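Troubleshooting: if your tokenizer reports a length mismatch, compare against these two reference records.
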Amino acid sequence: MILIPEHEYELTAIRAQGAGGQNVNKVSSAIHLRFDIAASTLSDWLKARLLHSKDNRITSEGVLVLKAQQYRTQEANKKDAIKRLHEIVNTANQVKPTRYATRPSYGSKQRRLETKTIRGQIKQMRGKITGE
């Protein structure tokens, strides 16, 4: 797990959007987090991986911008923004193993065909009974 030092990202308090009554116009409870990927101390491999990801929160200058306004307090929104930043970086750090194509075994093919035959027979029995 990668932890990012506090001096590498910038937190700015802004007014939150949406409902909130009179309080929403007075208090700056939302947080803008700006993280410059290129200027960070992350490894070059991880920087490249983050910059080439198709995340629309990363600007053309290579700055990751997160807006946290889920909670009513500024402190809770700060924690949320930092947690989301760590999640994004740690997700980019994980490499999924290469998937190799495999084929179904002979036995699994036979079992599938057997169940298909049985189901077909059951459905055939549902037809109308013709009297003589």
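Reference record two:
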Amino acid sequence: MIDHSQKCPSCGAEIRENDQLCAKCGHIVTRDPSTIVPPPIPIPPLPGSIPAKNVPPPIPNIQIPPTPPASQERAICVVGKVSLKTGVFSSDLYHMVITEKRLIFARQTKEMQTADAQRAREKAKQQGKNLLGQIGAQISTGSGEKYLVMAPDLILSENPQNFAIPLDEVIRINTYHAGFDDNSPDTMEVITPLGNWKFQIANYYKVQQQLKEVLGSKVR
């Protein structure tokens, strides 16, 4: 710290920095210019700067909620084991997956059915189920429930023979109950502007109920 005190030229007494007269003899103090500390020079604000008094209040930290994701397509239900005739004595087996947007037909090869049954039986065995429980789990794979937890696009890409029909292209779906006289099977016919697909189904009443929940009056 710089000592700005000085001695009185008249009596030699010490004079403090801010004294105008010598406290001892009353001599008028003459300051050495080098010892005078000038007042601070105000610094003008920079161009474009805002004076402190005009600074706006801080913006509160408002949490903006994230934009909800677009609704994703999902499987609503599965109509298991629908058969599409490919010839007089041949047919292809599918599971029909119903979503909010389309009907997806997932081809079921013999190898896929065998693998699904083995996995279901092994899982039931690990869960401690007896032989009947294991057989029941094996039979349940015919319902196609595995597709309820799969993404529709993944279902469609599972097999090159898989295909889909958009719901807005479905004109009507006719379901027919089996005849007792000729022993004909229950059937389902999907009618679209591009063509018709006729399938054999296992349970007329159940299939009709599942379809009506999605397509309403289009199902007959």
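Descriptive notes for reference record two:
- The helical segments are 110-126, 131-140, 152-156, 204-215.
- The chain has four helices and nine strands.
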